[in-house]
Every structure is written in C-alpha cells, then in structure tokens.
Design goal:
The complex is a heterotrimer of chains A (about 90), B (about 1000) and C (about 180). Chain A has about 90 residues and is mainly β. Chain A has a four-stranded antiparallel sheet with strand order 3-4-5-6, with no helix packed on it. Chain A has one domain: Folate-binding superfamily (Folate-binding fold, 2-Layer Sandwich), CATH 3.30.2270.10. Chain B has about 1000 residues and is α+β, with helices and mostly antiparallel strands. Chain C folds into two domains: about 100 residues, 2-Layer Sandwich (Gyrase A, domain 2), CATH 3.30.1360.120; about 70 residues. In chain C, about 25% of the residues lie in helices and about 35% in strands. Chain C is built from four helices and eleven strands, in the order βββαβββαββαβββα. In chain C, strands 1-2-8-11-10-9 form a six-stranded antiparallel sheet, with helices on one face. A five-stranded antiparallel sheet of chain C has the order 4-5-6-3-7. In chain C, strand 9 and strand 10 form a beta hairpin. Classes of the chains: A mainly beta (about 90), B alpha+beta (about 1000), C alpha+beta (about 180). Chains in contact: A-B, A-C, B-C. Chains B and C meet through strand 8, strand 15, strand 31, strand 39 and helix 20 of B and strand 7 and helix 4 of C.
Chain lengths: ~90, ~1000, ~180
C-alpha cells in the first residue's frame, strides 16, 4: 500500500504512522466547553466512504499529512500537508 | 515412457539421475520431477490426505493437487513441493507424502474402507462428547492424522529474502497474451515487469503443438522472449508467481531462485518475496482445465487432457501406452491428434452426441465414462454409449470438462467473477482490481489468434491510459482450432466421484452439505473443506459449485463462487518472514560505551532497540544484587558514571521556541533563564501524562529537551504534530540530536572532583549551580555540561560529540577509579531513582494524571497547555483516584514485587476491593530495606496506614506501610549541595 | 589535560565487497541541519549558495560536489554537508550540528541498485532516482537517507548507533545479489 506524501511522492505505507481523523487539526479553545472537547477527543464518525486521516511520514520527511481516502474502496484520493491548514 | 522426436524442453542426451522414495531413476536435463517420473512409468506418486487413496500426477503446473513430494537437499527438508513445478537435478532426493510404510502399501488406506463414516461433517458430528475426551483423545488423534507433509522444526540455514520492485506495468503470466502485452507496452516506452511462474516463457504454447507464424509455438515464444530480453524497458522475472493483488497497485510475488540447483551457494536466497509497486497491471494468467466428476475418477493415470498432450509436446513423455480421452469439448480432441502424430492410438469419448472427429482417431460420440478400475493405477474404464455399458482397457485417461479463466487475482480485492454461459465458465468482472486489466484466456478469450489480438488491444488501451504512445504491432498468423463446448459436470453412477483431490471431497459430500442445509457456497466450502487445501480448489471449485447448484436446484450464477484470497499459490512463511532471522530481526542500537561495557563483562539488556549495561560485576560478586548494591553505595559514597546517551535529545530553536514549550509542557519555559535547566511534564491532549524530562535553555532562541529513552520517538512525533497541525504559525523547528551527543551521568559526592580530572578549567557552583547548564571543553573538544540529577546526588550530565564518546567514557572511568568510583548500570540507576521517588514509564503508564503523580503544582494555572483542559474532566480530578505513594515493609517480608496489587487488611482479595498496585520495587542498600513505588486509592491521604500486597504469580503476600515516595534525603540537600 | 580520541561508527566494519557491489565507510565531515526561520527562506538560500554553490534544494533533491552540498532532509530542514554554517546562514536559519549523529556509507557498483531494492521500499529505478536526488526513507526498518551521487553510487545514512545493523543488512543484500548473479 502506498501513501502519497506531498513532499516525497508516493511512498510505502510502512514509512508512515497513523494518528486518526483529521478533525484533530481543529483543537477547541480551552473554554470551548465539555461538549466540544468531548467531540474533539473521543467522538468520531465512521463513514463508509470518503474520510480524512492524519498520517506522519516518520521514515521520510517527518511531515504530517492529511490523506483523503475512501474507506469502502481503500482508494486514496488526495493528500496535503497538515501545516497548510484546511482544504 | 519417452517418445522419440517429441519434447522440446528436455535434452535426454544429458541424463540426470535422481531418487524417488529411495529408488534411483534417470531423467533428462529440462525434466520436471513429474515428467521424469512419467517417463519412468511411475504413476502412483502419493496418497491422498484423508482416505489415503492412491494418487497420480494430474497436471503440468502449479495447480497440481496430487503430486506433492518432500525434497531433501543437504540440511533443508521441503515438504509439499509440487512435482510438476520442480526441475530435477543430479542426485535430487524426493519422497512421497502421507503414506506409511510405503506409497504402494499404506496402512492408513484403511480409512478408505471407513469412508461411509468419514463424510463431510464427520468431525463436527463425532468429536462432540464427552467433553473431557476432547483434549486427551480427539485432538491428539486428529493432529496425528492431519497435515500434508511434515515440517522439519530445526532451522536449516536456508536463506530467504524480501525485495521491492517498481514498474509502470506488471504483466502477470508470459503465455501468448503476456508475451504480446509485454512487447506492446515495452515498445510504448513503459517500464514493464513480466512475471511468469515457470522457468521458460511461453505458458501454454510450450505444451501445445500449434504454430504461430508457421513455426512451433514454443519457438515463437522463445523468439519473443529474446526480443523482450533485449528491451531496456522490460524486466523479465521467471520462476516468479504473482501471489496477491493489494491496494494502490501493490502486488506480492514469490520468486524461486535455486529449485534447479543441486548444491546452491549458502548465500543464495532460496526464494525472494517481491513487493511490486506498479501503476498498472495486465493479468495474462491464462486458463486452467477442469476435470469431470465421475465414479473413481481419481486413479493414478487419470489426468487432465491438456496435461497428457503437454507431457508429450514439452517433455516427450507418453503418459500411458493405451490412452483414452473423456471430454465435453473440441479442445480436448487435440490430445488425440497430438498423440496420433506420435504414433499412439487414442479413443476419444465425447459426451456430446454431435461431436465430430477432427482427425484420424477413434471417436465415441455421446459417450460417458461411468467407472474405472486398477488398484494402484488405471487399467480399465467403463463407459456408456447409446444406452449400452462397455469397458475398455487403458492406462491413461485424459479428461477435460472445459477451461476456467484464471480469475483469482481479480478477486483479491473482493471482486466477484461473472458467469459466462457460452464459455460455461466464470470470467473476470472488469474493474475488480483498480489499475488491473485482463487479457487473453484469463479474460475468456480462448483461440490463440484472438488471444494475441486481445492482448495487443488491452495493452494498447492501458498504455494510452498511462500516457504513452503506442505502435500497433502486426499480429502473427495462427492456426485457429475449434473451441466448442457443452457443459458436463458430473456423471452419476456407483462409487465416489471426486471433486477436490487434495482434500478428498466427493460429489456426495457436497450433496450431503446441501441436504444438511449448508446451501450457501461459503457454508458448503467450510462444511466439506472443498477448495481449502494448498491448491485452493483451482481444479475443483467450479465443478463443486455446479454440483451444489444442481443439488439445490439453482443455477450456477445464483449459486456463485467462494472468494479467492491471496496467495494465489502457497508462499512459505519463511519467505514472508525473510530478513527477520537473527540480526535481521530488528535494528540494534549501540551506545559509544558499548564495547567498554561488554569488555567489563556487563550483561547488556535491551531497552527498546538500545543495549544498556545491567551492572558491572566485580570479582567475588555472586549475583546481580551484589553488584547492584555495591554500585548504589558507590554512587552514594563516592562517584559513579553511567551512559545516558539513550535518552532522547531534541534541539528546539526559533523565536517562538519558548512559546512552543509553554504549549507542550505543563510548566512555563518561556521565562527560563539562559544557562538553566527545568524539569518538564508533558501531557497528552486527553489529560494523561505522556512523558517527562528536563529541558535546558542554551540561548535566547535555543533549547535542548530530553525525553525518556522509551518515548523519544513518540515525543518527537508529538512535537511535530503540535507544531504542524495546531500551531504552524509558531517560528520553531526541531532536530533530534540524540545520536550526535554521547552523554554520561556523573553522580555522587565526588562528582565535581571527577569533573575536575577530565574537564578543562573548573566547575563551580557559581557557573554550574543545581539545574544550571553551559558549555565546557574537554581537551579542547566542545562539550555541554548539565547539573541535573536522577540519583538524588550531586550530579552532572556531560555530553560530547559522539565520535568522542568511547574515549570520554574511558577517561571518566579511569578518573572515577582514582576517587573510589566506577561505572554503574541500569539496576543501580533504578534503585537510586526509586530511593528518591523519581518516576519512569513504570509509573507513567498512560493512565496517570499529573495529580496522580503528585505533580499538580507543575501544571501552570496561568497558561494553556496540551492536555490541560481535558485533565480537568470530572473523572480525572474526582476523589478516589489512585495516587503515587511509597511503600515499605512492615516487619520481615519475603519480597516486594512490581505488578502486585494492594488491598486493605482484612478485605477479600478481589478486583472490587482492589486498592492499587506496585509499579517499581527494589532492595535499597541506602535505606537498608525493600522499597516500592505504587499507586494507591487516595494514597497521599493514607500515609502511615498499612496495606496488604498480593502477588498471585509467586504466591507472595506482604504487609506494607504507606509512606511518602521520597525515601532518601527527602529535603534534596545532597543534590543541591 | 585529557586528550579525547575520535572513533568512527563504521570504519572497523568496512569495506565490504560482494559481486558487483562495494560498501565503504565515508570519512566524517561537517553535517548541519538547517531550518530557515519564518520569512527567511530567501536569505537562507542566498547564504547557502555562497557556502556550497547551490540554492535551496527542492523536495527530493540534493547533490554533493567535492563533498559539499545541501540536501533536502525533511519538511523543515536541509542538510548542509562538508562545511560549517556561516554567520550569514545562522542569521536566517536555525542550525544544528549533526556531524556525529549519522553512520554514513557509500554503496557503489553495477549491482548497487539491486542491493538497494532489498533494503528500502524507495523506487530506485534510474529514471526515478538519479544523481542529484536524495530521499529520507526507510532503510532496513531504520529512519535513513539515501543520496544518489552517481548512476551507480549511493550514500546511505542511518543514525550512528545503528551502524552495525546497516552494515549487516546491506551486506546480506550484497551477498544475495552476488549469489543470484552467479545463477543467472
């Protein structure tokens, strides 16, 4: 399986580690309240279809990458650098 | 027997001698074990799995269900080698399997007599009760009888390897379609890998008599192979079976490197497991012939019709002296034509009443074989024609029920094939594997001319899709042979009709499954074990589901197929695990002091991938405890030296470095003065502690952070996450300097004296107060000195560029000796820190908060940090959480053990009464007692109370007193002084 | 005054030669991670140009000439090789000494790419990875870097502590490729 790193190009998935849904990019403010923090920390959709994940290119350029993929087909649709912000 | 003038692959002038079951035979260069055995008229090659029926060679390829043998070469014993795929070499030793005492007289063949009781579901129904019989009687009984071949459990030194390959297009199979596709794609300038599981390219062309461009097919194939070899864009991988199709264009493939060698080089990997990454793929796997289920269709001598002529054409071997063919299609008649050309008289029994002879041979149209006889090999067949039953003497029967496109790889990503009524076969469903297209017989195109045209078309379309420009080649001329077929799956009669030869499944088993309501094809498969043997039902699956379709009154498309999963052909575990043996298992990380520690006889222990000294034994010390106690006393009394290079060290620079550290640490670092060090606690966003360590400020925009050895990688990834994902605006960057600096702890009341023997200039409290840091020089080499302590003593950590690490360690030890000091290992380091109540990942186990550790005061109230909000969740601050405490024995205790749980005295020992557990324990020579750290419910409020430790593994209980976790020098005067 | 003597992580283990591939130790030299501060990329590139005669490397690029150069070394970093950073460069970029952090070896020979195919999942076909290209990648399950110095010459780097594993795993691959060459 290959993951397209926006900097290094398509690389073997073993070079990456997985963190979770890209919603982790949107850290709530400290005073956002319990519900917002609960969602941020614990609640995830489980779509049969397109989703966005965060992967770290540990064995490569160490960039955090947002990967858009389809959970139903395993197809990888696109990727971008997390530091570039939302799509 | 050999047939003169036939057999282009075998050079009989070069005889090769080999043994089978200890008996010596001779074959020719180019023979497989199967062809050589048939040339020697050996027909019985093994016994079947369940009933121990006599079995013979059925095929010419990797789909072979019967001819599995065990090869012994030097120390290497390889079971389940397919005789049809194994070239012979001088003095090769092969043995049949599943037969005792011999393949001709096999005692377990008695199972065959019991067959009325051993049908599908026998095990499920029989080995049910009494329950106590299961472990003692049934399981050993089944295990002894089960299994194909036997593994040699010892490591024989054989090498395997893994490798990666990359290409634009992977062409799978080098028959006529594969050769043509590879040529078309290569001409288009695409990087092509052409993989074929045989040693010679050509596929079915090597087995057939048909011509291409008016030359024999095998010669055309050789010419094509030569052309492809000459192309820079094409890489040919022979002896390579593509075993699986995976996501994003990755394929697995197994290459056999030394199957043909009598004495392979010790460094030659016997197999290479390839991961092939490609943009596109063309499946040219061809088609596989299927047999027909009729009574006693499993005798040695009963083969596939295509194999009978294949052995003649490729190997010059007649599979029998009197051959008959039983078929439902035109293609099988070619076997009669080819044998007739070799001067053999053949009778074709064609189930179609309108079948027409294509040449000079005896045709019985509308005939069906209803039985066979011959105990160790076929002697006679019984057949019906026009309502009459007759017999015919023959020693070889070629059967053909038609051809199945080899759709397997198209199903590896959950695709399902489509039923084609005209072909009476399943064909691939387009788009089943993204990026993979199918050409030739694998796509259901059967005539050679059409196969070549299809391959060019499919390859050209793919090339264009990949952005290449295509030159359309001129198609070679072919003979077009008839391909008519009328389905015939089963001939019913007296006796068992075999479907899966490898797992001994009969039509009766499938009907029984249907009768017992295992009507889904997946249920039938599991109930009967149909298709679950190493051949994965390549020969029998379509046949079996046609029987199931008949038994359930459904059509074949409605019945459907079972899923084909990787691997296409068996892959040895050794190939999948290649590289993981011995030193290849995992990287080894060595500190610069490793050689000196080993030379000092220190036992090295693994810490992650690192190796660290456990203790440094001195003459007269009998156990590790003797050494550890001495080393602890040495540090407390004089000075000790310990390599701490394995701790993570991260260089953090930038105008916003301080602000960034404020975000990742609970404490404030932006206000830390240059030249100072501060202890930091790092939380996960969910509020639990991630790691701890010290961070030193080397300059206004320059910090160096230390992490624990265990969490170094995790912390680095966390810092990058917080920066890139949460605060990319902060101007800060990180660089791991763990490996650039060799760092040594120098600890003890004489630590400063030791430094003065090594460091240029002097080290004073003014320049290096407790928690101070700065640059020093050692013999002119720039070094860093940190006054920090993990032992509770006056201590430093001294860092030099790693090239000087070994030399510095040597100097430090020599200087230490003059002060009554020396090196200390992990055991002493652990005791020293437990005595001081310092935590490690034994305590930071992912479930503890800063408050649990008694470190709530370290969480700054004046700023946000990662994990701060979540750490305030009710569950993390509620009363009753387990808190870090010290524990010491009350009276004499046998031992305190980490992992033991704590209970209130008098309580039942039960999870509901559990009060906590012990995380670290040791004997403390400084205190003169066993000590422990642990977590106890409301622990800090319970100092002075007693609890009971219960350790079930060793059956130890002890009464302990709860105390402060700092056992030694509680006011910290020693490390500050 | 004590005199510290340097040791090399690979020197005692190399060279190794099997078939058409040789693995050699590379003499230690200056290696510095360079990360331009925000908004200082151009200034950093200019300072680097003065030092090594080449501009800031694009992702996947990096060349050495006379042992000097600037290699793409991560999302935030380039690796300055063969020379210490200038004052100019330090004004516009954070620099971190890495001279002792890596085990550095050169793999060369006609079989070099076949050897690499056994230790890294990186695409090392000549068209995909030629001179002037550089990759941070997995080498035998270690975080590493590979620089293509010439069509048949590659520089391999892993962290210094793993020098033995690097030499071991590459040597095994070299033996395999050599043995496979003899059967062909």
């Amino acid at each position: 399986m290959k993951i397209p790193c926006p900097l290094c190009g398509a690389r073997d998935s073993r070079e990456f580690s997985y963190l979770g849904h890209a919603g982790l990019l949107d850290r709530p403010a400290p005073d956002a309240g319990d519900a917002a923090w609960d969602d941020y920390l614990h609640n995830r959709d489980n779509p049969a279809g397109v989703t966005e994940d965060l992967w770290s290119h540990d064995y490569g350029c160490a960039a955090w990458v947002v990967v858009t993929r389809n959970t139903a087909t395993h197809g990888i649709l696109s990727s971008r650098l997390a530091k570039d912000g939302a799509a | 027997m050999r047939v003169a003038g036939f057999g282009h692959a075998v050079d009989t002038a070069q005889p090769v001698s080999f043994t089978f079951d200890g008996k010596r035979f001779s074959g020719g260069q180019g023979d497989t074990l199967a062809s050589a055995l048939l040339a020697n008229d050996v027909r019985l090659v093994g016994r079947s799995f369940k009933y121990h029926r006599a079995r013979g060679i059925v095929t010419t390829g990797s789909e072979e269900p019967n001819a599995l043998v065990t090869l012994t070469r030097g120390a290497a014993v390889t079971p389940n080698t397919r005789a049809t795929m194994q070239p012979i070499y001088q003095d090769m030793a092969a043995n049949s399997q599943n037969a005792w005492p011999s393949r001709a007289f096999d005692l377990l063949a008695a199972n065959d007599l019991l067959s009325p009781f051993l049908g599908a579901g026998f095990y499920y129904k029989t080995f049910m009760w009494p329950q106590s019989f299961w472990e003692k009687v049934y399981e050993p009984l089944i295990r002894r009888a089960a299994g194909l071949g036997a593994l040699d459990p010892t490591y024989d030194g054989t090498r395997f390897e893994k490798a990666y390959a990359h290409c634009d297009v992977l062409v799978i199979g080098a028959g006529p379609a594969g050769l043509m596709a590879a040529w078309t794609l290569g001409q288009a300038g695409l990087d092509v890998i052409l993989a074929d599981e045989h040693d010679t390219l050509g596929g079915r062309l090597l087995l057939e008599s048909e011509t291409i461009n008016h030359t024999p097919g095998h010669i055309w194939a050789a010419e094509m192979a030569e052309k492809l070899h000459a192309m820079d864009t094409v890489r040919i991988m022979a002896n390579t079976t593509v075993t699986g199709a995976y996501d994003q264009g990755d394929f697995g493939a197994l290459q056999r490197n030394d199957a043909h060698l009598a004495n392979p080089d010790a460094t030659l990997p016997t197999e290479t497991f390839w991961r092939i990454a490609t943009r596109g793929a063309v499946l040219c796997a061809g088609a596989g012939e299927r047999h027909i289920a009729f009574p006693d269709n499993d005798r040695p001598g009963v083969m596939l019709a295509g194999a009978v002529r294949g052995y003649l054409n490729k190997y010059g071997v007649a599979a029998g002296a009197r051959v008959a063919v039983f078929a439902n299609n035109d293609n099988a008649h070619q076997t009669a034509l080819d044998l007739a050309a070799a001067g053999q008289a053949v009778t074709v029994l064609d189930s179609r009443s309108d079948a027409v002879a294509q040449g000079d041979y005896n045709l019985l149209a509308g005939a069906q074989v209803v039985g066979t006889s011959g105990r160790q090999g076929l002697r006679k067949i019984t057949f019906t024609q026009n309502g009459q039953t007759r017999s015919m003497a023959c020693d070889c029967l070629g059967i053909s029920g038609g051809w199945n496109p080899m759709v397997h790889l198209t199903c590896h990503m959950n695709g399902r094939p489509t039923w084609d009524e005209n072909l009476a076969s399943f064909v691939p469903t387009p788009g089943s594997v993204p990026g993979m297209v199918v050409a030739g017989s694998a796509a259901g195109v059967m005539a050679t001319g059409a196969v070549l045209a299809d391959a060019v078309q499919v390859a050209s379309d793919l090339a264009r899709d990949l952005g290449a420009s295509v030159q359309t080649p001129i198609l070679p001329s072919t003979e077009d042979r008839p391909t008519g077929i009328k389905p015939l799956w089963e001939v019913r009669g007296h006796g068992r009709a075999w479907l899966d030869f490898q797992n001994d499944v009969t039509t009766k088993d499938v009907r029984l499954a249907a009768q017992e309501n295992f009507r889904s094809v997946e249920h039938m498969k599991r109930y009967t074990t149909q298709g679950m043997a190493p051949d994965q039902g390549k020969l029998s699956n379509v046949l079996a589901l046609s029987v199931l379709a008949d038994a359930t009154g459904r059509g074949i498309p409605e019945t459907g197929t079972t899923t084909f999963r990787p691997p296409y052909a068996p892959v040895s575990i050794a190939a999948l695990g290649a590289g993981g043996h011995g030193k290849g298992f995992a990287p080894e990380r060595f500190t610069t002091s490793h050689a000196a520690s080993v030379a000092a006889n220190a036992p090295m222990i693994e810490a992650g991938f690192w190796y660290r000294p456990s203790y440094f034994p001195q003459p007269g010390e009998r156990t590790w405890r003797d050494s550890c106690d001495r080393e602890v006393a040495m540090v407390r009394g004089a000075v000790g030296v310990c390599d701490v290079s394995t701790l993570g060290k991260i260089d953090i620079q930038g105008p916003d470095a301080g602000a960034f550290l404020d975000l990742v640490y609970t404490g404030r670092f932006s206000t830390l003065k240059v030249g100072k060090v501060k202890y930091g606690l790092m939380l996960r966003e969910d509020g639990f502690v991630l790691d701890d360590g010290t961070t030193a400020r080397l300059g206004p925009q320059h910090f160096v952070m230390t992490t624990t050895t265990a969490a170094a990688g995790q912390v680095m990834r966390h810092l990058e996450f917080v920066h890139q994902c949460l605060r990319p605006d902060l101007d800060v960057s990180f660089a791991s300097v763990t490996e650039h600096w060799a760092q040594f702890a120098v600890a003890g009341p004489k630590a400063r004296n030791l430094l003065h023997l090594v460091v240029d200039g002097s080290v004073t409290d003014d320049i290096f107060p407790f928690m101070g840091c700065g640059a020093v020089s050692i013999g002119g080499v720039n070094a860093r000195l940190f006054r920090i302590s993990f032992s509770g003593e006056h201590a430093y950590e001294l860092a030099v560029p790693a090239r000087f690490g070994a030399s510095l360690f040597d100097h430090l030890l020599r200087a230490a000796e003059t002060l009554g000091g020396g090196p200390y290992g992990m055991e002493a380091l652990n005791v020293l820190r437990i005595e001081k109540g310092f935590i490690t990942h034994a305590e930071i186990d992912g479930r503890v908060t800063a408050d649990d550790l008694g470190l709530a005061r370290m969480v700054s109230g004046a700023k946000d940090c990662i994990g701060k909000t979540a750490a305030g969740r009710p569950g993390l601050v509620e009363d009753g959480r387990q808190q870090l405490v010290g524990l010491r024995p009350v009276g004499t205790v046998k031992k305190i053990l980490a992992g033991a749980h704590l209970f209130n005295p008098g309580d039942d020992v039960h999870r509901t009464t559990d009060q906590g557990h012990i995380t670290s324990a040791c004997y403390s020579p400084s205190v003169g007692s066993s000590l422990a750290l642990g977590f106890l419910k409301n622990g800090r409020a319970r100092v002075g109370e007693t609890v009971v430790m219960v350790e079930h593994l060793n059956g130890i209980t002890a009464t302990l007193e709860v105390c402060d976790p700092v056992f030694f020098d509680p006011d910290g005067g020693r490390m500050r002084g | 005054m004590v005199k510290l003597t340097p040791t090399d992580p690979c020197a005692d283990l190399l060279p190794v030669e099997h078939g058409h591939a040789v693995l050699r130790a590379v003499a230690p030299t200056d290696m510095w991670l360079v990360a331009p501060y925000n908004g200082k990329a151009k200034a950093a590139a200019k300072a680097a140009q003065k030092l090594v005669g080449q501009g800031w490397p694009d992702p996947g690029q990096g060349a050495l000439s006379d042992g000097r150069g600037l290699l793409f070394f991560g999302h935030a970093h380039a690796l300055l090789v063969g020379v210490a950073p200038s004052k100019d460069l330090m004004k516009s970029a954070a620099v971190t000494d890495q001279s002792d952090a890596w085990a550095v070896v050169d793999l060369s020979g006609d079989a070099a790419r076949d050897v690499l195919a056994r230790v890294t999942p990186l695409d090392v076909r000549p068209a995909a990875f030629g001179p002037g290209q550089c990759a941070r990648c997995d080498i035998a399950h270690m975080q590493g870097a590979i620089v293509c110095l010439a069509p048949q010459q590659f520089r391999l780097m892993v962290f210094r502590s793993m020098a033995k594993t690097l030499v071991h795993d590459v040597t095994v691959a070299m033996e395999s490729v050599a043995a496979l060459g003899k059967t062909a």
